[in-house]
Amino acid sequence: MTNYTLDWDQYTKLARLAAREGVVLLKNEHNTLPLKDGTTISIFGRSQFSYYKSGTGSGGMVNIDYVTSPLDALKSSSDLSITINNTLLQTYEAWIEKNPFDKGEGWAAEPWSQKEMPLDDDVVAQAAKGSDMAIIFIGRTAGEDKDNTADPGSYLLTDIEKDMIRKVSHAFERSLVILNVGNIIDMQWAEEYHPTAILYAWQGGMEGGNGLYDVLVGKVSPSGKLPDTIARSIEDYPSTKNFGDTEKAIYQEDIYVGYRYFETFAKDKVLYPFGFGLSYTNFAVDVAGASELNGVISLSVNVTNKGEYEGKEAVQVYVEKPQGLLGNPVRSLVSFAKTNVLQTGRSETLNFEIPVKDFASYDDGGITGNKSAYVLEAGTYRLHIGTDIRSAVPSFDYYIDSLHVVETLSENMAPVTPFTRMKPSISANGYQLTFEDVPLRTVDVRSRCLEELPGNREYTGDKGYKLADVYNGTVELDMFLDQLTDEDLAIMVRGEGMNSPRVTPGTAGAFGGVSDRLNELGIPAACCADGPSGIRMDCGTKAFSLPNGTLLASTFNVELIEALFEMTGLEMRRNRVDTLLGPGMNIHRNPLNGRNFEYFSEDPYLTGKMAAAQLKGMHRVGVTGTIKHFSANNQEFHRHDIDSIISERALREIYLKGYEIAVKEAGATSIMTTYGAVNGVWTAGLYDQNSRILRGEWGFDGIVMTDWWAKINDEGGLGTKNNTAPMVRSQNDLYMVVNQPDANPFDDNTLAALADGSLTRGELHRNAANICRFIMKMPVMERILGLHDGSIEVIGLQKSEENEFELDVEYQNVANGDSLSLENIEISTGSRHVFAVSLDEAGMYEIKMTGRSYAGELAQMPVTLFQGSTPAATFSFNGTNGEWVSQTKQIFFFNKHAYLKLHFGLGGLELKDIKFDLVNSFSMKD
């Protein structure tokens, strides 16, 4: 039995290291940074008090014990003698008391930014008189189901924010703007108002403030690099004109995403290039050796610290391909590496091994004579090496004298809607932007799918086999699954949630053994939990809040990310979570995508390497991540309905490439599809993607699940939530989620399709086999076999962790009209009572709470009812002279399984019961 220990101090240290290595310094004039000993600082901007640890939605909903803001860290500085202008601080505090933080109401309701305090000239002038420098905080958030917009207060600064930067930058000789954001924002103000320093702090999780502090005071030199290109205007991004439609997103820019577009067609539109980031020191980068042998290019690069501070440097390698017949961007990232900390005058040699086949381009139309193949066209492949895409210099040429076919595949996911795409043509002034028709689908995908059906399987009846027999190698998996009835198999492809009572309280879902019958066969229920920025448990259980995806990509440090996510893996084991619903790894196609904070970069290679690092870290301790959203989830607006129209080449080279890296290099075993469609087919039922590419070409051997309550369609039809037959056929193994899988509340059509012959038992059997193979690799199987009891020793936990639920919480079944007794519970100021309920149906309920008090009639005793971690209603009782009185509120229960908490604002109250009356039932069926 393996013993696991989670060192919380090490976890915290690694998160702080990641937060500081992800800081990207864009400008640093007049020695603004690092801060000097004895410095007096005036801090502007309300975001100094409301640090955004992450974006919003499932990727950021982590219950935390603490979060350290940059202001907190500066106030408690023990490294330097730093004085914060207290008069200005008090001015802000007084204003914020009258203008409190706006959290919004409901899902995706938090505003992108908070109202900012207008600055009087006198306030700025007085602050400048008594301070050495100014720090200006700008904060932004966005997230699931809520894109940014090209408006003030979102992607753009508000007039008040611009006025703040203008006034402060003019009044102070040194001024630093800190951007606490999830994604890049408009930067035109940088050229207009000229602050002397600018840095992206991103959203650093609970240790983000400490990580930023380390950079500000010079404990470390900044070493983060931009994972995205910052252009002058949102209109300069070629995807902007096709972003935000309600029905279709035409990917006219094709493979020319981010720097691939700007470096090829519009270098003058760039403010800060991809891969850019300053340090407090200077590095010399020299190529010591370059050669090719057996199709692998070997590079040795010496990095020497020439400056006055110690620091790290990230070296990036780009390939410049010949244009050939296909056309190519002038730069594509093919490798990167980061040094260790280098002292002044010290050097380190970084070695790169780059397969030439990685330079191949995908021919989706057959223009090279090799349709649906990766090819290397004849010509010179020039490698550029540097510390960003603009500084990279030509360092090695590799010449191919004739076309070489690297890999012959087959047409998959090709578009059916005609459109044109970008392509370079060579002119006297470089590359001119032209357009060509996109190759359309030429195969009958339905017929091909039917030709590739698995062999059918017959029901044998119960032979007494258990899944443990398969695990121990005494029974074949197929023989075990032949015992399952058609109904058992239909239940297997349904996940249960959210807040399934079969798994860890408050988590997103359970799958596998989601019925008593399946449990009897020894199939346990595996647990999955959101999300990319830490474990989300809606019941209130505390977890570690991680830096966001954009920040992690900015580190360019795969070793650090792998070590950090080993700690996350241990935390998952501690909470009996088998797979984390992350990393998110869609491409930053456009800066306005609200979910960019969860994702990594505009570049697929960097994206794939970062995702692979997270998976490798979790795999070290036997858990995994569910990479998502597969594929092309690049817009949240109308995400359930949007059809992404993309060429097969762009899919292969950009939008699928990161997933391919994660599967092939890190052994990904769990993937989540998107809400929307690609080229007319909702991805939850996209056979070409989920079977032919993922499993057939990449060798994936794991599970595929839908996003929660996703739609599926047959091509040509509308997506609906109960059309599970094409989902099963595509090998999207799990529909996530339903309230009661063995009762089929969605009325899905799995069994009906079996009955009419449009779905086979062999297909369902195949999905069940995928699910069982996955489960047998997870900790849940170890626990039911007694190989590991699931306990994890935790050491070094510094903060209090008053989790509200035990892992084995018991549910109370509640039928319509039932009352739950609340007698004998302790009620005092600030006390709470927690219970879990399983309702007969989801929907709107009238909740009647009955209580009494012997206090005077003017006494006020509020009781807040939380559903999960969200306040749902407040019952405010007055004194009742000892008489029982009732109050009613209406509360909507999206799931039939719910965790409820009563929080008492004041003592002196006695409760009798709480009654649940169904007003309107709720069904997810369309």
CA-CA gap between termini? 48 Å
Relative helix content: 10-25%
Structural class: alpha/beta
Shape: globular
Low-confidence stretches: none
Mean pLDDT: 94
Radius of gyration: 29 Å
Counted by DSSP, the helix tally is 23
Major β-sheet, in short?
Answer: 6 strands, mixed
SS elements, strand count: 44
- Roughly what fraction of the amino acids lie in strands? 25-35%
The strands making up the biggest β-sheet line up spatially as 2-7-6-5-3-4
Query: In terms of quaternary structure, what is this?
Result: single chain
Give structural notes.
β6, α6 and β7 (197-200) form a beta-alpha-beta unit. The chain is α/β, with parallel strands linked by helices and 926 residues long. The strands form 13 sheets. A 6-stranded mixed beta sheet has the order 2-7-6-5-3-4. A 5-stranded mixed beta sheet has the order 36-38-43-40-41, with no helix packed on it. The protein has a 4-stranded mixed beta sheet with strand order 9-29-31-32, with no helix packed on it.
List keywords for this structure.
926 residues, alpha/beta, 6-stranded mixed sheet, 5-stranded mixed sheet, 23 helices, globular
List the helices and strands and how they pair.
Elements: E1 5-7, H1 8-21, E2 24-28, E3 40-44, H2 70-75, E4 83-84, H3 86-98, H4 121-129, E5 133-139, H5 159-171, E6 175-180, H6 188-193, E7 197-200, H7 208-216, E8 230-231, E9 248-250, H8 259-265, E10 270-272, E11 283-293, E12 296-305, E13 314-320, E14 332-338, E15 347-355, E16 361-363, E17 373-376, E18 379-386, E19 393-400, E20 404-408, E21 420-427, E22 430-437, H9 445-451, H10 467-471, H11 477-481, H12 486-492, E23 494-496, E24 509-512, H13 516-520, E25 525-530, H14 549-554, H15 558-574, E26 579-581, H16 604-619, E27 624-625, E28 627-630, E29 643-645, H17 648-655, H18 657-666, E30 670-673, E31 677-678, E32 681-682, H19 687-697, E33 703-705, H20 724-730, E34 735-738, H21 750-756, H22 761-776, H23 779-784, E35 793-795, E36 811-814, E37 819-821, E38 832-839, E39 843-852, E40 860-867, E41 870-878, E42 885-893, E43 897-904, E44 910-921
Parallel strand pairs: 1-35, 3-4, 3-5, 5-6, 6-7, 9-29, 23-34, 25-26, 26-27, 28-30, 29-31, 30-33, 36-38
Antiparallel strand pairs: 2-7, 8-10, 11-12, 12-15, 13-14, 13-18, 16-17, 17-20, 18-19, 21-22, 24-25, 31-32, 37-44, 38-43, 39-42, 39-44, 40-41, 40-43
